[in-house]
Known about the structure:
2 domains, alpha/beta, 49% helix, Rossmann fold, 18 helices
Amino acid sequence: MEICAIICEFNPFHNGHAYLLRRARELSGCDAVLCVMSGQFTQRGEICRTDKFLRAKHAILCGADAVVELPVPFAVAPAEIFAKGAVNIISSIPQVKCVAFGCESSCGDGESCEDGGIFESAAKILSDESALFKATLEKHLDWGESYIKSYGAAFEACGGNGGLLSSPNNVLGVEYAKAVLNSGADIRLLPVKRVGADYNDERLADGYSSASGIRANADNPRIKNEMPECSYDDFIKSTDNGKRFRRLAADWLYLCDKENLKRVYGCTEGLENRLKNLAFGHGFEEIVELACSKRYSKARVRRILTANLLGLYADQTQEFLQGGLPVKVLAVKKERADGLLPLLTVTPENAVSAQACAELSSKAYGLWRYLSTPLLLDNPNEKMILA
Length: 387
């Protein structure tokens, strides 16, 4: 059996995701599609409104064959670590032959992004980070340019196509390519042209809105046209838990130990001092607004606050990578269960480390359940769903 993997969040699952699943199956020619999905918290430091088991079920009903969880230390992490965690999981399953991901239609200069070779070439440049790359990056940062712009300038200085890094989807694609390259796994890259609204667009589009747009317009009846029926029904029945989550994250920033805050990915160069100072008298979004800068994006600050609340630390996450990650199945297609479940039963090299990683995900799920009361899905024991 050959498997095509998709790394995802599905927050919530929408028509564009269903399209990606269809195209991944068509273009890969694989026998099965496996999703590696974030649990209750996302890479941008946000809390999911819908239960991870339900989101996994939506994926199964709309074309996937199995969904496994990306452990929370990697789900709430910078793009590079997010990608490393997901590739660590898929490379532990020998039957995975390719990884599909959404990309833009063009990278600039008339070059199509629907070519895995473009991402592989970028990965080689960015994995090396030569002296020229580092010097260019620092120079542009010193000029006051944003980190993203400075990173792109350094990439171009080393022969890369700067247009490739102009969207979050492409940036993640490059990180997947880097992770595959550095893992040594024989996994093919399969960029799939994205349809619909931009990743960050909070407006509703015509049938293919982004997840950001759907979340921002959760009370608008038009979102019914942007999602499969199963996903829409569960989304509107679920609890909007964002306000409770943000209050708790801001309170914990005030209470937490500064030395632990420094252990969170991205909390560098004295940012921990600024965040602790802002914790007194400011709410979550105020802290994000006041702490962000050209060097520190809002997404980065949100991610730090969320990781701090969940107790996710960079040193521990690196140890998890070294020991191998747990593979937790969230949902599987009934008729494929007998063939797929044995393939997804992976024994990590370091069982103790893998168990500690799994426990962090379980604790995060417990916190999410607490913040999301009352719940639609009664699944306290985290039982896999057959759909």
